[in-house]
Amino acid sequence: MFFQTRTAKFLAAASAVLMTVAVVGYAMAGSLGRVVVNSTPPGAQVLVHGQVVGTTPATLRLPAGKSVRVQVKKPGFKTKSFTVTPKDGKSTKVSVRLAPK
């Protein structure tokens, strides 16, 4: 009986914590916009604020209305940087031509 009571209390507390995390996570995420990044040549790394997030062609889901610094780089080519502001529920397409070093 003691074990069952402690287990039930633990599960209730854990459930409440998970619900709070889900609500806060959704509120923090807000609305998202899609940014489609293509490069010539393809297969370049895509970085957002210095963190690798994919390889071209890449579709990114980013917070809408906030400027984001994006870099596209590939060995043997010059890195291209740009800033994009995703729009809520919309897709923004960006094509980058990388120049050889």
Give me the secondary-structure topology.
Elements: H1 2-29, E1 32-40, E2 45-48, E3 51-55, E4 58-63, E5 68-73, E6 80-84, E7 91-97
Parallel strand pairs: 1-7
Antiparallel strand pairs: 1-4, 2-3, 2-5, 5-6
Note down, in words, how this protein is organized.
28% of the residues lie in helices and 42% in strands. By secondary structure, it is α+β, with helices and mostly antiparallel strands. It folds into two domains: 1-30; 32-97, Immunoglobulins (Immunoglobulin-like). The chain has a four-stranded antiparallel beta sheet with strand order 3-2-5-6, with no helix packed on it. The protein has a three-stranded mixed beta sheet with strand order 4-1-7, with no helix packed on it. Residues 14-27 have low confidence and may be disordered.
CATH architectural category of the largest domain: Sandwich
Largest sheet: 4 strands, antiparallel
The CATH topology of the largest domain is what? Answer: Immunoglobulin-like
CA-based shape? globular
* Spatial arrangement of strands, main beta sheet: 3-2-5-6
- In CATH, the homologous superfamily of the largest domain goes by the name Immunoglobulins
> How far do the termini sit from each other?
72 Å
Report the top-level CATH class of the largest domain: Mainly Beta
DSSP strand tally: 7
How many helices? The count is: 1
Q: What share of the residues does DSSP label as strand, in percent? A: 35-45%
From N to C, what is the helix and strand string? Answer: HEEEEEEE
The figure for the number of domains is 2
Q: What is the alpha-carbon Rg in Å?
A: 21 Å
Low-pLDDT windows of residues:
14-27
Helical coverage, percent range: 25-40%
Structural class computed from helices and strand pairing: alpha+beta
Give the overall average pLDDT: 81
